[in-house]
Design goal:
The complex is a heterodimer. Chain A is mainly alpha-helical. Helices cover about 75% and strands about 5% of the residues of chain A. In chain B, the strands form two sheets. Chain B has a six-stranded mixed β-sheet, sandwiched between helices. A four-stranded antiparallel β-sheet of chain B has the order 2-1-4-5, with helices on one face. The longest helix of chain B has 14 residues, at about 150-165. The chains are: A mainly alpha, B alpha/beta.
Chain lengths: ~325, ~250
C-alpha cells in the first residue's frame, strides 16, 4: 500500500470515527467537535491560498464573519427562513466581497499582500464593531435557525445539536472533496505553478492575476460557508468573528496542521482545540501553552501535523511491504 | 526581402539614467535563425525582455505579424505565439519534467479556468507535453522531479517547456549556457530542426555555435545595433571587428 493510500485510509477511518462520535459523547463535546469541524473548513479554505497558491492572507476572517452577519441581518426575528434562500444569499454576498477585496489584493504580493488583506479585514471589523444598528461590539443574535425542507417537508432540524453535528461533518467532507477536485483540474495545476514560480507561469501564457483572484474568491466563499455554519450552530455572530485574532488563529491552524494538504488544517483545528480544552482546566495561561505548542510543532514538525501523519504512513507502508515479502 | 514576422522600430529602454537599449530597429525574417551577439552589457537580454513583454519599452514600437505588441504583457505575447526560454533555468523544481511541460501545453487551451474534470483527462495536453519532452531528449526523464535532473537536462527542459506552448517564434537567451559539449551539440541539432518551421531569435556567447547555425546576425554594443547582416558580411565588418570580435585579425 502506498503512502497516499495509507493516508487516505487513515482519513476515512477518522471520518468514520467522527461519524460514530455522537454515540459516545455528551452534548458539550458534541458542540465542541462541531466547532472544530467548522474551524477545519475555515482553515482548509485558507490552505487553498497559502499552501497551494502561495498567497498568505491575513484577513481571511473577514469572510468568515461577514457570512454570519449577513445571515443575522436577513433572518427575521420571529419567523424561520429557508436555508435554500439564506445560504445562497450569504455565499453570494461573501463571494462579492472576496471579488472586490481580491481584485485589489492580488495586485500585490509578499508582505504587501499580507498587509492589504489585513487592512481590508480590519475595515470590515470596525464597520461592524462601530455599527450600533448591527449590535456594535456585542454582535447579533440569529433568533431562528434556517429551515431545511424539500417539497414542504422539513428534512433536517438545525435546532438539534446532533443533526447540526452531522450536517457540519457532511459539509467538511464535501468541502474536502470539492477542493481536491479543483486542485486536480487544470485550474489547480495553474495555481500550484503560481506558488512555485509565478514569473514563469506568466511567461508560459497564464494571466496569473486572474487565477489568483479566482482562488481568492473560492477560498473566501468557502470561509463564508464555514462562517454561516458557525452562526447557525451557535446562534450568534460578533465582531470577534472577523477580527485579526481570528485571521491569526486560522493562519496558525494551517501552519500547525500542515500547509498544502487540505486535511492538515483540519487536524490543526482539532489539535489546538483539544489542547485548549484540556489545558484550560489546569491553568489560566492558555496563550502561553498555545505559544509553546506552536513553537514546538514549527521547530520539530516542519510540515506540521500532516507531515507527521505522512511520515508515519510511509513507515507503515514500508513495514507492510516487508511483511508481505516471503521470508528468505 | 521577405516581410518581417517580428520587427522593432527605434526601441529604447532606460533604467534611470542608464540607456540599456538605445533606438534599436531590427527586422526578424520568418523561418530564419537570427542570432544577436555582443559583449556583456550590450543590451541583448534587455532586448529579449522587451520583445517578450517582461519589460515594457521606454520608447519605440514592436510589431509581431503586423500587430502592435509594444504594450503586451508576457502572458499575452506567449498566447500570441512568442515563446521564451531563459538564460538561467527558470523551471518548477518540485514538479516532474512532465508536469513542467504540462503547464506549457495546458496554456494552449482556450482557458484553464476549468474546475471539474481532472487535468490528466486532457489527452491533447498530455500529447503536446510529451512531444516537447521527446523533442528535447527528455522522454525518459518524464516522471523525474526537475530538481533531480542534471544542469544540462534542466537547460533542455527549459526549452521543452517553451516548445510545449507551440510558439511560432522562439526567443532563446543563451540556450547553450552551462552545457557540456555533447549536450550543446544535441541542442544545436534541435535548433536546426526547429528552424524548419519556426523563427528563432537567439542570444549566444559561443561564437562557433553562432556561426554554425545563424543565418542572420545582429551585433549590439552599448545598447545600439552596430550591424545586421549575413554572418560572413558581419565577420568582415570593420566596426564589428573593433568593437567586439576585436583584435582586428579575427575575420581572416
Amino acid at each position: 500500500m502506498s503512502e497516499s493510500r495509507t493516508v487516505a485510509s487513515l482519513l476515512l477511518a477518522a471520518v468514520a470515527g467522527l461519524a460514530l462520535f455522537p454515540f459516545a459523547s455528551d452534548e458539550f463535546y458534541l458542540e465542541l467537535f462541531t466547532h472544530f469541524m467548522v474551524l477545519g473548513i475555515f482553515a482548509m479554505s485558507l490552505d487553498l491560498l497559502i499552501g497551494y497558491t502561495g498567497l498568505v492572507s491575513f484577513g481571511h476572517a473577514a469572510f468568515f464573519g461577514l457570512a454570519g452577519y449577513l445571515l443575522a441581518i436577513i433572518t427575521p426575528e420571529s419567523e424561520a427562513m429557508s436555508l435554500w434562500v439564506s445560504l445562497p444569499v450569504c455565499l453570494a454576498g461573501v463571494a462579492l466581497a472576496a471579488l472586490v477585496i481580491g481584485w485589489f489584493s492580488v495586485r500585490t504580493s509578499g508582505i504587501y499582500f499580507i498587509m492589504i488583506t489585513l487592512a481590508f479585514a480590519q475595515m470590515t471589523f470596525y464597520y461592524f464593531n462601530e455599527n450600533v444598528a448591527l449590535g456594535g461590539s456585542d454582535g447579533m443574535f440569529i433568533f431562528t435557525k434556517p429551515t431545511v425542507g424539500i417539497g414542504g417537508f422539513e428534512i433536517i432540524d438545525l435546532g438539534d445539536p446532533t443533526t447540526v453535528y452531522y450536517a457540519v461533518l457532511a459539509s467538511l467532507v464535501a468541502c474536502y472533496l470539492l477542493l481536491s477536485m479543483v486542485l486536480r483540474a487544470p485550474f489547480g495545476r495553474v495555481i500550484k505553478a503560481i506558488r512555485v514560480n509565478e514569473h514563469r507561469t506568466r511567461a508560459l501564457g497564464y494571466d496569473t492575476r486572474r487565477y489568483k483572484l479566482a482562488a481568492f474568491v473560492i477560498a473566501g466563499t468557502m470561509a463564508g460557508f464555514a462562517g454561516y455554519l458557525e452562526a447557525v450552530s451557535t446562534g450568534i455572530v460578533s465582531p470577534g468573528h472577523l477580527s485579526w485574532h481570528q485571521s491569526g488563529l486560522v493562519l496558525i491552524l494551517v501552519i500547525l496542521g500542515g500547509m498544502g494538504t487540505l486535511y492538515g488544517p483540519v487536524l490543526g483545528a482539532f489539535a489546538l482545540g483539544l489542547l485548549h480544552d484540556q489545558v484550560q482546566d489546569v491553568t489560566v495561561h492558555w496563550q502561553l501553552v498555545q505559544g509553546i505548542f506552536v513553537i514546538l510543532v514549527v521547530l520539530f514538525l516542519p510540515h506540521g501535523i500532516a507531515g507527521l501523519v505522512a511520515r508515519l504512513a510511509r513507515r507503515g507502508a514500508a513495514l507492510a511491504e516487508r511483511a508481505r515479502e516471503p521470508e528468505s | 526581402m521577405t516581410e518581417a514576422i517580428l520587427s522593432t522600430r527605434n526601441l529604447s529602454k532606460l533604467f534611470g539614467a542608464l540607456v540599456a537599449v538605445d533606438g534599436v530597429t531590427i527586422d526578424f525574417a520568418p523561418g530564419k535563425i537570427h542570432a544577436i551577439i555582443g559583449p556583456n552589457g550590450a543590451g541583448k537580454t534587455t532586448l529579449i525582455n522587451l520583445l517578450c513583454g517582461d519589460l515594457s519599452p521606454s520608447q519605440g514600437t514592436i510589431a509581431f505579424k503586423d500587430r502592435d505588441i509594444t504594450k503586451l504583457t508576457p502572458f499575452q505575447t506567449s498566447r500570441a505565439g512568442i515563446g521564451r526560454s531563459y538564460q538561467k533555468s527558470n523551471i518548477f523544481p518540485e514538479f516532474s519534467c512532465l508536469e513542467n511541460c504540462w503547464l506549457g501545453a495546458q496554456s494552449r487551451l482556450p482557458t484553464s479556468m476549468k474546475f471539474f474534470r481532472p487535468a490528466e483527462g486532457y489527452g491533447e495536453v498530455r500529447a503536446r507535453a510529451e512531444r516537447a519532452l521527446d523533442l528535447c531528449g527528455l522522454g525518459r526523464r518524464m516522471n523525474v522531479r526537475a530538481a533531480q535532473i542534471s544542469h544540462g537536462e534542466q537547460r533542455q527542459l527549459e526549452i521543452a517547456m517553451m516548445l510545449a506552448t507551440e510558439p511560432e517564434l522562439l526567443l532563446l537567451d543563451e540556450p547553450l549556457a552551462g552545457m557540456g559539449t555533447e549536450e550543446a551539440a544535441a541542442i544545436l541539432e534541435l535548433l536546426k530542426e526547429l528552424a524548419r518551421d519556426h523563427t528563432l531569435v537567439l542570444i549566444e556567447h559561443d561564437m562557433d555555435a553562432v556561426f554554425s547555425i545563424a543565418e542572420v546576425l545582429t551585433v549590439m554594443d552599448n545598447g545600439r545595433v552596430l550591424v545586421t547582416g549575413a554572418p560572413e558580411e558581419v565577420r568582415r565588418n570593420r566596426a564589428v571587428q573593433e568593437a567586439y570580435l576585436g583584435m582586428g585579425d579575427e575575420g581572416a
